Amino acid sequence: MQILRRSPCCWGIKSLSDGSASQSGTVIPHGRDGRATLRGTDMGYKVAIIGATGNVGREMLNVLAEREFPVDEIFALASRRSVGIEVTFGEKTLKCQNLETFDFSKVDFALMSAGGAVSKEWSPKIGATGCIVIDNSSAWRYDVDVPLIVPEVNAEVLVEYMARNNRKNIIANPNCSTAQMVVALKPLHDAARIKRVVVSTYQSVSGAGKEAMDELWAQTKGKYVPGQEVEPKKFPKQIAFNCIPQIDVFMEDGYTKEEWKMLAETKKILDPKIKVTATCVRVPVFVGHSESVNVEFERQMTVAEARSILREAPGIMVVDKRETGGYVTPVEAAGEFATYVSRIREDATVENGLAMWIVSDNLLKGAALNTVQIAETLVNRKLLAKAA
Ligand code: NAP
Ligand code: 2RA
Questions:
Q1: Is ligand 1 within 6 A of the CB of residue 362?
Q2: Which numbered atom of ligand 1 lies nearest the CA of 175?
Q3: CA of 48 to the centre of ligand 2 (A)
Q4: Element holding 55 (H helix, E strand)
C-alpha cells in the first residue's frame, strides 16, 4: 500500500513551532512554507537510502527532497528482490540497487531502514568505510558506544561522538513512540524535572511496515466480502476493527519489548533518572501514533506554564482548545513534521501531575524526519569534517 500524503500544512499553521536555536543549540531555520531547511552550505553530499522501497525509506527520500538537503548524488538501495524497482526523489526517479553489491566508500551518509538483522550485519561494515550510518532499527540503540539522538533533545551528544577517533560511525534513531514523546517532554523536564511518566500508546499499523498496512486494508475489506476473509499474519490477532495490547515480543517481566524500549530509550535520550511505565497498543489506524501521557514533576507545573513552554518548543505544536474537536488526531498529524500536544490538564491523582495527548506521524518524526534532522545537525554543525 502506498501512503497518500496530506498537504504539508493541513491546519494552516507552520509545521515546526520555532525557527530559532533550541535549548540543545540545534538551529532549525524555516523554509518558505514554514518547514525547516538547512543553512546555506557550499557543498553537497552523497547519500544512500537503505530500505528505499519500505515505508520509512520512501519517506526519507521525500523528506530529503522537501527539506532541500544538499544532495550531490543519491542512491536507492534495498534487497536483491527489489533491484530495478523505481522510487521517487523529488522530481527524479531512482532505480533500486542491491545493498550487497554497493560500494559505500563513495557516499557520505547511509540512511538505513531495513530492519535490525540487516543493520547488525551491514552498519559496522559501512561505518568502517568512513560513511556515517544513521539507523532506524533497534540494533544499535542500546549500545553504549552508539549515540541515540533526537536533535531537539540531545544534539550535543553528536559533538562529543564525532570528535572520537575510534567511533563506529553509527548513529541510532529511536523508536517512533519514544521520539514523539521525548520531544514533548524535554522542555517540560528542563523547567520542572520529570520524576515519572505513565504512557499508553495507540500505534498505527504503518509502524510495523508496509505488509502490516496491507493486512489492515485487506482484513477490513474482507470483513464485508464473503470468501475474502484475511487471517492475522503480521499481527498476533485480528487488527481490523480491533485493538491489540501487544507490540513486539513479551519479556520475562510481562512487559512487551516495545514497552521496554520506551523506558530504556527515554532514559538514554532524556535522563536516566526518569521512571517510565508504558502500555503499547496497536490500533487500526494507518499512519500516526497517539499517546496518552501522565507526567509527575518535582515541582508544580501549571497547565498554563506547560502550554506556554510547549508553544515555544522546537518541533512541537500545541492544539488544545477544550471544545469538541479542539485536539489533534492521527488523521490530522499524518504527513506533518510537527509533534502535536493536546488535552493538557492537571492530573490531580499525584502531586505535581499533568496529563496530555501527544500525536505525531510515526514515519516522519518517528523515523524519516528524525533521521534527516540528525544528518542536518552533522552538516550544520560542521561535524562531518572531522569524520574519519
Ligand atoms: P518496511 O516497510 O517493511 O520496509 C523494509 C525495507 O527494508 C524494504 O525496503 C526492504 O527491501 C528492506 N530490506 C528488507 N530486507 C533487506 C535485506 N536483506 N537487504 C536490503 N534491504 C532489505 O519497514 P519500515 O516500516 O520501513 O521499517 C524499516 C525499519 O525502520 C525497521 O527496522 C523498523 O523497526 C524501523 N522503524 C520503523 C518505524 C515506523 O514507524 N515504521 C519507526 C521507527 C523505526 P525489499 O523491498 O527489497 O524487501
Ligand atoms: C511500531 N514502534 O510501531 C514500532 C516501529 N518500529 O511497531
A1: yes
A2: 43
A3: 23
A4: helix 55-66
The set of residues, in sequence order, having a beta carbon less than 8 Å from that of 297 and lying 6+ positions away, is 188, 192, 193, 194, 195, 352, 353, 354
Is residue 196 within 8 A of residue 302, CB to CB? The reply is no
Ligand 2: residue whose CA is nearest its atom 5: 207
Q: Could you give the strand order of the β-sheet that contains 316-318, starting from the edge strand earlier in sequence?
A: 275-282, 194-203, 289-297, 353-360, 339-346, 316-318
Tell which wins on pLDDT, 15 or 351: 351
Phi, psi of 387 (to 5 degrees): -65, 145
Q: Write down the residue that cell numbers 512541537 correspond to.
A: 316
Per DSSP, 158 falls in state: H
Enter the DSSP assignment of 35: -
- Gap between the Cα atoms of 247 and 236, Å rounded: 9
- Grid coordinates representing 122 are 551491514
pLDDT per residue over 356-387, tens digit each? 999 999 999 999 999 999 999 999 999 986 34
Task: Report the separation in Å between the CA atom of 188 and the middle of ligand 1, taken as the mean of its atom positions.
Answer: 33
Q: Which atom belonging to ligand 1 lies closest to the Cα atom of 51?
A: 9
CB atoms < 10 A from the CB of 226, how many? 7
Of 385, 382, 374, the C-alpha closest to 153 is 374
Tell me if residue 30 is catalytic.
no
C-alpha distance from residue 364 to each of 33, 160, 196, 200, 226 (Å): 17, 26, 27, 20, 37
At 84-103, the pLDDT tens digits run 999 999 999 999 999 999 99
Smallest CA-to-CA distance from 149 within 118, 119, 170, 163 is with 170
81 lines ligand 1 (CB under 6 A): yes
Per the CB < 8 A criterion, the answer to whether 213 and 316 are in contact is no
Q: Which residues contact 200 (CB under 8 A, 6 or more apart)?
A: 278, 279, 280, 281, 291, 292
246 pLDDT above the threshold of 80: yes
Which pLDDT belongs to residue 5?
47
The C-alpha cell at 147 is 549515540
| pLDDT (tens digit per residue) in 129-143 | 999 999 999 999 999
Domains of the chain (ranges; CATH) run: 26-175+367-380 (3.40.50.720), 177-362 (3.30.360.10)
pTM over 0.85: yes
User: Could you tell me if the CB of 365 is within 6 A of ligand 1?
Assistant: no
For ligand 1, whether the C-beta of 111 sits within 6 Å is: no
